[in-house]
């Protein structure tokens, strides 16, 4: 039976280095003691007395370095043309075209492979910054990140391999810009919208007395701005660029609690616990009292009202496309006040007419009273005349009776009549 032997990694490394040394691939005599060079052609131009602190591992790694310091190049052709200092290239062809450039960190196969003179770049991922030749101060993270970016001071974090103009995270260090092409979750790893804050508050704070704290909402070129006004402390809603000179809505910090409530008392209720002040297009309709104002007659006003089923100055009700009633509070208030003032004019007119009628009735009453008095006098006279007429009739009856008696007497006495 064969016995299995286990060989440790340090033993394998020692044997490997020894074999490479025997093959002439490791040439410690051609370099300073603070440089480490391993691989065919690695550090081929290294000046052993001038270059310091370089680590060059791989075929042709750092082959052009002469007296530069502090480079770490690991991988075949990593930094093969580099003549700068402070670079770290890890991966096959990493920083392959880099020439006079310093303080770059390229990790990944062909990472920063096109860079020539760009400085202070950090490219992490295979093919990161594949096309950028002269850009500086870039940070690209992810396979193919920033593959098509040619500028400086940029941030790309993405993993599209082939590169994209819309990486997951994009930034501009010189302009203090950070963009996220996706959903950002704060307190959650499953954001349900572009910005999802879970278990906390969203805070917008402006530093300095010269600035407002502002939040902008833009849709189809139209902008609404919500601003915490630094001068008044009011929260204002404003549409900048729309020709307006004042904010559309203002909420003051001095407002009382529960001053304005929507849906509290019912699903379709708006509850205002304060004075409702309407300004703007509302005007004072006192023009109805001016002499030149043409006030329609009560009859004409009533005819219009019954024909159109609304008061003339108030106007007809309006219904929107959803079938809901719409009221312009300013116009409606002005119209109602105009109608109220006209109603008082009508009342005053009717009062004058009523007073006139009362006076006429009083005069007629006096006249009737006088006539009634005269009538009573006449009645009394008629009654007296009737009494006298009755007495005369009685006398006439007596005279007739007397005459009859005299005639009878004459007949009885045989005395001839005078006739």
Structure, described:
This protein is an alpha/beta fold and 419 residues long. Among the domains are: 213-258, no CATH class; 286-404, no CATH class. 26% of the residues lie in helices and 17% in strands. The chain has three helices and 20 strands. The strands form five sheets. It has a ten-stranded mixed beta sheet with strand order 1-2-3-4-5-6-7-8-9-10, with no helix packed on it. Strands 13-14-15-16 form a four-stranded antiparallel beta sheet, with no helix packed on it. It is rod-shaped.
> What's the end-to-end separation, in Å?
211 Å
Helix content: 25-40%
Provide the β-strand percentage band. 15-25%
Mean pLDDT: 84
| Counted beta strands | 20
The number of helices is: 3
The dominant shape is rod-shaped
Going by helix content, strand content and strand pairing, the class is alpha/beta
Strand order of the biggest β-sheet: 1-2-3-4-5-6-7-8-9-10
Gyration radius from CA atoms, angstroms: 58 Å
Largest sheet: 10 strands, mixed
Low-confidence stretches: 1-31
SSE order, one letter for each helix or strand: HEEEEEEEEEEEEEEEEEEHEEH
